Amino acid sequence: DTEVTQTPKHLVMGMTNKKSLKCEQHMGHRAMYWYKQKAKKPPELMFVYSYEKLSINESVPSRFSPECPNSSLLNLHLHALQPEDSALYLCASSPLGRDARSGYTFGSGTRLTVV
Amino acid sequence: AQSVTQLGSHVSVSEGALVLLRCNYSSSVPPYLFWYVQYPNQGLQLLLKYTSAATLVKGINGFEAEFKKSETSFHLTKPSAHMSDAAEYFCAVSVFGNEKLTFGTGTRLTIIP
Lengths: 115, 113
Known about the structure:
The structure holds 2 protein chains of 2 kinds.
Chain A: E1 4-7, E2 10-13, E3 18-25, E4 31-37, E5 44-50, E6 53-57, E7 64-70, E8 73-79, E9 87-94, E10 105-106, E11 110-114
Parallel strand pairs in A: 2-11
Antiparallel strand pairs in A: 1-3, 3-8, 4-5, 4-9, 5-6, 7-8, 9-10, 9-11
Chain B: E1 3-7, E2 10-14, E3 19-26, E4 31-38, E5 44-50, E6 56-58, E7 64-68, E8 73-78, E9 87-95, E10 98-103, E11 107-112
Parallel strand pairs in B: 2-11
Antiparallel strand pairs in B: 1-3, 3-8, 4-5, 4-9, 6-7, 7-8, 9-10, 9-11
């Protein structure tokens, strides 16, 4: 299995809703990432988990809450979002250490619309 | 900190013509360099990577890139463009010991029939 699977593919939520994005990989990668991508822009790093522990938080607002239940799963919990949070949310995984040079594997993303 | 610069936010080439997308990097230590492609409403797919082995790297879909340390460049080329190559292309850099992958601003490639 060489894929990163993200669900759902599309999500519309109100500003008072609570929802979660899910990401799964079975490549044995020990690093997992959340990126946010606005239209016509490059992906922006949000969070990095290394060995299931949060290692990087790029000053993301607390309405985004990541969780890494195990080495294969990564969640992003969403609460009280704003319309400007509408974007494509990408999950990625990679090996750690020198093997990281093999590159990240990205999922197909969740298209989030906040209304 | 490492960074990449992509020259040209939009590139148009005729079908069958040479594709050249430019990427320059900045890094105080030997970099790992990547090219990713993104089709509309999809995730990113790895085209090719440089990891300090051969300087000329071949990737998928007929693309290749050459690492030139003296020019701090990692330009992406394809000898003959195909309509299916129309997409957004991102150059990215990371270094050993830092999980962060830093992207360039992207180049939108348009193929003219």
